[in-house]
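Reference record
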Amino acid sequence: MEEVLIAMAKGLVNDKDAVSVTVEEPSETEIIFHLNVAEDDKGRVIGQKGSKARAIRTIISAIAAKEGKRSRVEID
């Protein structure tokens, strides 16, 4: 899942080197991804009215559901 999130984010940003993801697992059934991008690229990842962020979260959520987990993506 982490690799998919990184690939999606790198496809949207200008500064590809600034993209990183940290993973937090507070429980066995929950996983939280902290997507870090350059300050100038946050708008590109979030999209107009959050449309791109919502799409990213939907895809990651579907992948996590296949593994029996709930996911959350936070864009930092």
